[in-house]
Amino acid sequence: MARDRNVQGVIDQLESRCEMGYKKYGVTTERNDLDLLQWLQHLQEELMDAAVYIERIKSEVNNESESSPRIPSRF
Fold first, then answer.
1. Considering the domain boundaries, does residue 17 fall inside one?
2. Fewest Cβ atoms closer than 10 Å to its Cβ: which of 36, 45, 50, 55?
3. 1 & 15 share domain
4. What helix, strand, coil percent values describe the chain, rounded to 5?
């Protein structure tokens, strides 16, 4: 089976993030000191960050589209 470069890119990023997270926090996601609600809180905070990043990018795309050609529909 041919390797998908996009999948491999995600795998590489996950491995890097795992190492960085362990160096910063000294724990992995296999930790047992958080209950389900605490894990859900972490997830919610990460998703809120993602929503902010999306809004920021949308704003930039809208500003660019006012002054430059449209982004092709495939993007």
1. yes
2. 36
3. yes
4. 70, 0, 30
- The string of pLDDT tens digits covering residues 1-52 is 788 999 999 999 999 999 999 999 999 999 999 999 999 999 999 999 999 9
- Which pTM does this prediction carry? 0.69
C-alpha span between 30 and 27 (Å, rounded): 8
CA distance 32 to 46: 20
Q: Is there a single domain that holds both residue 22 and residue 44?
A: no
Tell me the C-alpha distance between 21 and 46, whole Å: 14
Whether residue 27 sits in one domain with residue 6: yes
**Residue range of the domain that includes 19:** 1-31
